[in-house]
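Record type: monomer structure entry
Structure origin: computed from sequence
Chain ID: A
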Amino acid sequence: MNRDYAAHFFRWGWAARQIKQGESILDVGCGQDQPLLYVLASRKQTVPDVYVGVDLNRLVKKSACRWADI
């Protein structure tokens, strides 16, 4: 794991701790891998009501989460 990826991972963890269950999330610049989506999906206490991820690049992966709109 490189240093830049680790720095982003800590940011996603911090963001996930700020999100309360049932909130709506707009992730601008989410990236093709949508890492914040996976962090949120892995923690039951941070499952948002709606997650919308947008990015300048085309997003090809669709999420299996019913609350995620990519």
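Annotation 1: The CA atoms of residues 28 and 54 lie 5 Å apart.
Annotation 2: The first strand starts at residue 24 and ends at 28.
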